[in-house]
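Field: COMPLEX_INPUT
Field: COMPONENT_COUNT = three
Field: RESIDUE_TOTAL = 1363
Field: MODE = joint
Values follow.
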Amino acid sequence: MGEWKPISTALYETRIHRCDYCGKMVPRRIWVIAYQGKPLQFCDPKCELGWFEYWLPRYGSEHGFSTAAPLDP
Amino acid sequence: MNTGKNLKPIVDSVTLTIVNNAMVSACREMGVAMMKTSYSSIFNEGLDFSCVIFDRDGEMVACAEFCPAQIGAILFTMQWTIAEMGLENFGPGDVIMHNDPYRGGCHMPEHTVIKGIYHRGELYGFVGNIAHLTEIGGKAVGGFAADAKEVYQEGLRLPPVKIVRNGELVEDIWKFLLLNHRTPRTSWGDLHAMIGSLAVAEKRLHRLLRRFGIDGLLDIGKRLIAYSEKRMRAEISDIPDGEYSFHDWIENDGVTPEKRYRINSTVTVREDEVVFDYTGTSEQARGPCNCTYGVTASATYNAMLSITDATIPKNSGCYRPIQIVAPPGTLLNVEHPGPSVGGNSEVHERIVDVLFACLGQAVPERVAAASGGSSCNFLFGGIHPDTGHYYANYHIDGCGWGGKAHSDGNHAQCPINGNCRNTPIEIFETRYPWLTLEYRLAEKSGGHGRHRGGFGSVRVLRNRAPEVTVSSFMDRHVTGAWGMDGGGEGAPGRLLIKKSGEEAWISFSDAYGTVSPNKFADIQIDRGDEVLIASRGGGGFGPSCERPPEEVLHDVVEGLTSVQEARKVYRVALTRRDNGSLGVDAAATARLRRTRAKAVRKGSEAGNG
Amino acid sequence: MGRIVGIDTGGTFTDLVALAEDGTVHLAKEPSSPDRPADAFARVLEKSGIPGTDIERLVHGTTVAANAIIQRKGARLLFVSTSGFEDIPFIQRINRERAYDLHWVKPEPLVLRSNCMGLKERCGSRGEIILPLEDSALEDLGKFIGSRLERDEIDAISVCLLFSFLNPTHEIAVGAYLEKNFPRLLVSLSHQVAPVWREYERSSTVLADAFVKPLLDRYCIDLVTALEKVQLRCPCALLKSNGGTSLPDNARKRPVDLIFSGMAGGVVGGRYFARRAGFQNAITFDMGGTSCDVGIIIDGDQQFSTEFEIEWGLPVAIPTIEVRTLGAGGGSIAWIDKGGLLNVGPQSAGGDPGPACYGAGGTAPTVTDANLLLGRLNPLYFLGGEVPLDFDLAAVAMDGLAVDMGVSRIEAAIAVIDIANENMTNAIRILSIELGIEPCDFALVAFGGAGPLHAAAVARKLGIVNVVVPPHPGLCSAFGAAISELRVEKVQTFSTRHQNVSEEEIRNRFDAISKEAEEELRSEGLSGSFRCTLSISMRYYQQNYEEDIEYRKRDGLEGALSGFHERHRRQYGYHFEDETIELVHFKVSLVEEKCSPDLRLNEKVAEPDSSLSRRSGYDVDGESSDFFVYRREALALASHLSGPAIVEEVDSTTFLPSGFELRIDGGGNFLLNEAPQSVTK
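Field: COMPLEX_OUTPUT
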């Protein structure tokens, strides 16, 4: 089950988070799920659906995890 | 005036049309105001800007794009700004600006300004525009550091900040910004042009809000968006389902020797939705040929809008059935701190060509063969010998466009990411210390085909000043634009220099040791040096032996092809009539074409090397 | 003193308006003869019954040049450019008419590429000669021309050399060479046609000039023949695109000036009636069967533009009255797009087959059909009864639309009118922002066959308070031709910065241009006095669009510069006090000073509200209504009407919606206003 997690708004935090499905930048809150123990982050549940329907059958789960910074603990 | 219709709960289609037209008109008026008051010529002659109206949910309700390059980007820069600032932090009379490429922008020179629209104290939505500022500080003059290796060299980067608060300039930001631009007067003028134009659209929206109220206008906006979505889905349904792939190469990134970069695209059409998947694209480059997400999205929408019904109102709705998958850290979705200034000008049009090659596998009658696909970005600056003042200019040239199923490609046209005009020679030479020796169509540069590719142009300039600093960011000098359906390749471009007193034309790499012959920055050339910029031709469409003989004759008479090429490539025999003019030898042509028809039609798509 | 006569050749009709000295008006109308336009000209003159000896002045607005260009039926051209730049007509400005239109084809220039030749010469950006023009270069040109003549491939020559607007000596030398060696070929030189910078625009202009030169030559001869029969006392002048007139001998030398002749008359007429109604600021609104022309009068003067286009991408850089043409007319077709939304135009049923109600085979529902169904047109009195309108055919056409939309016939008709009005409103708004004005500060002068039908609704949408409908609105263009003045405009590019030029230099430049202009004005037959306006187009140093600022001798350059700052501040909200200003074009405008005639209409003895009839129809919001229907000629000067009402006349119909009032002023104009109690926000 996914949940919305806030993205840090500290002034010194300038890293940009990306959706693991479509690659778009995400500003303030990000949709996070866990897949096989690893976290995946998306723009919204629609992109989560896209990941399962389009990405996973095509590329598997080894690829596509973004290089974005981890979220605040 | 209350006609009674306004109170109907169901908004009728007439009102939809009227409101849509009024909003698009307001966006156009924004653009006209910007055009007339801005300072940079890339802004006002190049029309490098777009104007939009958003509702408070961050959806685009109407737009007037004067430049296709930003149609994707402006969606995301606006949405990002609204989300990052938060609705509660906007106030009447506030204007917010940013130019961060990683926050949805195309590249650093593009600045987005956004203003909230209030009616009786409540927020309706936003007006905004995005425009190219010529000079933004950074490593190179003119905002185009062709050899930048990271974003910090490209110029001053602003996150969303308020530049006007409650109608007053936020002086601290302005002081800070203008000090970091080399031509602060120009930036001052351009930014005022942008801010001033927001007021124009605001007035129009207030009129609509008085007539319909906030809820009424929001509702109409949502219906317009739903309408466009429905129309776009209908268009996509007409495209045969399937998966269509293609790829192309960017020849170099300007800083890394001997490395090229792959643009990869797989387009999947599934009923009324389409996915544009750029997986398989090379990792991002060190040099600034990377594209931001904004650029890739803009190119994707550009291609889709070019092959669908142009009367669909452009708003968030028409983008809903279009999905984009752009893996971060690649050429088409650059991550911090990768540079990106060249992606918008030079790679956008290459993405579109790849997408046309994909979509052309499904709907060939709607697309075109590859275009010349380069803006021939050429920047120069220095101290003017006549005035003693500093000057800088960002120069572009048109290229030939690809042939299509029903017509030849146009000659010398601004590439598809923009809609700029060229600078007239008489204005160019009045402002800048060059003498133009030639400006003509590049002979035989269009790919042959049933429908010819358009020709590129050749421009030869001689430097009149003691020295000029030049930069360049061009591609497509090695391989030409591919043809489609059996059409031939367009001729590649050239960028050459002839040093004063020498006879030979050589590349800038040979002359100055630059890593790349077509991407370099800050080379000083001397008085009397000549520069040749040849833009590329478009690819042809369809086998050349299917071009009607009368048209081939016309091409020969008009100097677009030769008698020999007519025979060899187009299989048309020409003969001289009694009065001296040329005519078609029908019998010989029929013979030539019969022998050709026996050969199997081959595709001639290049770029798979 | 005899009568002044204006004859306007339109697409369907050729109109004649004659004004006598005592202010009485005489009208005549004949169907146009597009194949031989001079025939309709002669016929309408004959039909008017006015003896030629009774005509003091005759001005003719013609579409001959415009049609030639639109239909591409003109001279076969040879184009001479500076060597290395022969492809300028083909490269053009490299932009596209629309984004996302892959299939758009660049406009074809008026000359074949095989007939373009580069001349070995070169002038630079200061007018200096970089490569002199040698005899050998002219001989090469001679050979090129000779070969084309041998194969009978050309009729006329156009010349555009780089920077000829600064230094015309090479073009003059070419002209002299051609005069001597090829005296029978007509020649156009760009520095004479349009001495302004931007080589593509200048090339396009000189090509257009040469393209219509032989044709206009012949037309002037036809006109003279036609007039001989009528024993005219005076020569027939032609109406120029800038609203001034030109005698045939001058018109033949620079025929490009006549390209927009047909459009200019309307604005000149509209301006006259606006002023007589007391409005110095007005928007002229001329709506006919196919299109709607919108012009702007500011401070009593029409506006001018040098950015006109024959078609998108083929500019003509001559001073033209600023008129925007919208594809919105009585014949505009209403249609449903793929998504189910209603559109009106830009396709038009034109004059043939025309609206469905014409009964000439048209089946698509048009704006005229909608007006008829809503009771705003009299089927038996359209064009004075010459074209009977078939109500049932209109109903059938509209029903098709109504069924698709899921509404009633009347609701569909109301929607069609509303959208047509919105389209026109939006176009007027864009024009006003380009000119920096607010429509609500202006009056709307409506004419043409359909203008007065739509004016009140359009005015309401724009926030315009005053609407003027002149007498005989359908003939306003011919009227404009009749009252047009002698006018000469001269433009010259001389780009410099304000710090680099002295007051004396400016005076000298203006004096030189004024002298040339005055000579031309005298050659047009000016005997009286004239008004001279000087202006300089300016912009801040790095901007690309200029504003025309008037230059007054007593205020000098300083005055003009502060005028520019002020104009910029007013229009855009800011200005830069100490910024460099670029002066670009010097413009001289000389206009004949003459009194516009006083129109006198016959005094009516009829009762102020003796209406002709009642007709049931539908008001602006679809409410069914009983209209009072009047004939204009039966209305007394002191009449005061309230809407909803219709006023008919032979050449037009005025629709007065409820909430509007109509008065007639001393000049015979209708003045429409919203009645005070119905003004709401």
